[in-house]
Amino acid sequence: MRYTPVPHDMRRAILFLMLGIFGTALFAAALSVYMFHDVDHDKIGHWNEAFAGLCIESALFTLIVGGE
Questions:
Q1: How confident is the model at residue 68 (pLDDT cuts 50, 70, 90)?
Q2: Which of 31, 33, 60, 65 is deepest in the core (most CB within 10 A)?
Q3: 38 Ramachandran zone, left/alpha/beta (phi>0; psi -120 to 50)
Q4: Strand runs labelled E in the chain
Q5: Sign of torsion, CA 22 28 29 30?
Q6: DSSP labels for 48-60?
Q7: How far apart are CA 33 and CA 41, in angstroms?
Q8: Are 18 and 65 within 8 A, CB to CB?
Q9: What per-residue string of b and e applies to 2-33 under the rule 16 or more CB within 10 Å gives b?
Q10: Are 51 and 33 in contact (CB under 8 A)?
Q11: pLDDT by residue (tens digit) across 22-64?
């Protein structure tokens, strides 16, 4: 049996991995900020700013792990 790489399938797998990481990170960030109020002392009462900061961190983490 001959090995033939299929870059399209690998690209799709990496995309799904990145979407899964990003979706999970957003869910965890929302849970952390809005339900547990686990934010820095200067962000207490500014929940949307804290969530935006975590969203940016999640996007950067997804791009670094995805490698694209």
A1: low
A2: 33
A3: beta
A4: none
A5: positive
A6: HHHHHHHHHHHHH
A7: 12
A8: yes
A9: eeeeeeeeeeeeeeeebeebbeebbeebeeeb
A10: yes
A11: 999 999 999 999 999 888 888 888 999 999 999 999 999 999 9
Residue 52 near residue 33 (C-beta atoms within 8 A): no
Written as six digits, the tokens of 57 are 């961190």
Compute the C-alpha angle 37/38/44, nearest 5°: 60
pLDDT for res 40: 86
Residue positions counted in the chain: 68
Q: Which two tokens stand for residue 1?
A: 């049996």
**What distances in angstroms separate CA 45 from CA 10, 24, 56, 66, one per listed residue?**
43, 24, 19, 33
